[in-house]
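Most newcomers find our protein records easier to grasp once they have seen one. Nothing more is needed to start thinking about how sequence determines fold. Here is such a record, shown just as it appears in the course material:
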Amino acid sequence: MRYLNSTKAGLVFLALGLTACTDTADESDVNALRDDLNNLSDQVKNEETFELQLLHLADMDGSNVDALANVGNIAAIVNGLRNQHPEKTLFVSSGDNYIPGSRYTASSDDSFSTVTGVATPGDGRADIAFLNAMGLEASAVGNHDLDSGTSAFLGLIAADGNWSGAQFPYLSANLDFSADTNVSGLEVSNGQEASAMLNSLAAYAVVTVDGEQIGLVGASTPTLENITSTGDINVLPANDSITDLAAEIQVSVDELTDSGVDKIILLAHMQQLAVEKQLAALLSDVDIIVGGGSNTLLADYNDRLLPGDDAADSYPLIYNSASNEPVVLVNVDGDYKYLGRLMVEFDAAGRIILSSINPLVSGVYSAEDETVSAVNGSANTTVDNIVKAVNDVLVAQESNILGNTSVYLNGQRSSVRSEETNLGNLTADANLWYARQYDANVEISLKNGGGIRADIGSFAFPPGSTDVEDIEYFPPESFPAAGKETGDISQFDIQSALAFNNGLALVDVSAAELKAIVEHGVSDIGGGRFAQVGGLSFTYDPSADVGNRVTDLSVGGTVVVNSGVLQSVGPFRMVTLGFLADGGDGYPIPATNREDLVLDASVSTSVDMSADDPGQASFAETGSEQDALAEYLKQFHPDDSASFNNVDTIADESATDTRISAL
């Protein structure tokens, strides 16, 4: 934890007061760190300098509980830090400012017509209103910002009735919005002051801070069309090459430098920090890259971290650009858990002075009451009132109990994207059972781990321990205000875990097609495409070449692949997510005998399965994955007399995976 004071000695003393790590710091330590930073570059500090306070966040796309619990403190921290340097502050986001789910839909409730900051109800508007109230000045376009399609994106950015829309521009230099009829009208000329670009889309903008122009360029992952609903937005480059992406971004950077702007920040939503690291070395004239999409926590040696968190690397990371100038890369974890703060000086030529980055000032600020007090932050009443309004809606959702579990249901991002989990199994089984209500011939179920957005349950360190090996895992906590008892699975839990609520689709797959689908599901371990399955099991070799990793695969008792050799069996009827059947996450799923279980007159493959729906749950659309899980729980695990009890390996080392095995 760090605190500002008028003297260095006071600053060091206060920083030591609440530092959460075992390191100690004195003036010589700080000077040594500054020397190390300065030695990374041969630049000479110019007496004419400009100081910037950059505040940044990203990836508010995970746990609804965490985001709502944290956002009030983050707003207060923004207030406190901005008040310390009111003329020097720039506040930005690297995208994924919301995600479909219960928090997202809460602001469509009629009660929001009287909530300041929203006023006209609509999906996702509470999330944008948080950022408006905090004074966000620009954001990159993240993948989750488009999850509900371009029409919904329009409804969030544009003003509507008493809804003011996004009071900041969304930026991306590698997205061509012109062909999409929903959002093309939001495009404005590049390079204007961001304050004149409200409710708009552009490649880049300018913000004047303390008399100096700062260029802001946005960039989105080139794989965007594979992981979200881009509509008719053209994502560049078509080949997904990072080198070619850098060339796309460089065009905007060059236009800014040609106009005389010599301090440039890239808001990069790349999903993997490794890509931002590549861009740092490929681009010229970019000074700071604010990463997004990877939830990577960077922190320096004296940052106070939330319990259970560990930094992936230092804050900031420093690289040399293609023009041999320093580039600073920063990133924070999501769900409003941290606010990033970079205090940095530029010389007269617009180059970063590395020695100006003081680790007692720059770094991440945790969303805790202690941090608010340390920076003299004041509550943002608009944000707090919106949080209360969202929570009021969510209490009603917590009151709708659909099932019960006696164990923690593992939906952790790192788990569902790399291994079999009990929540992956449960949701895949639910989809399979539900699909069989319509078509008894369905044999297998496959979904992507990236479609699971939150766990169902909680975990904590036992008293006195900070050892990860000691973490204890629990079923969902009680919520007395909603009549929810320990272990109960509520509508809120289901909507949080399956936030996208994809429709279910049935297709026929041959043995060869099934192998190709499963191969794709293990082609990127740790990525969102990683498969979670029901009705089948397989073994794969993660060290083998992509496309040749599956060694054995069976559907029930039928062997499909044996020691890498494909058997002549099939075809098989499969239930999957409509998103994957449409090619989402790059899945090679055929359209053979496709049937979509969500009724939609505009979709030729849509069917009406309302007569086959069990009808025990009604909050989610018939034929959707949320409805499938709710109906399955009602049927098999309705209460604590029939709890789901398959423990996950993360919670019990004696538990074993039975569907997905890695050699």
Q: What stands out?
A: Residues 1-31, 39-46 have pLDDT under 50 and may be disordered.
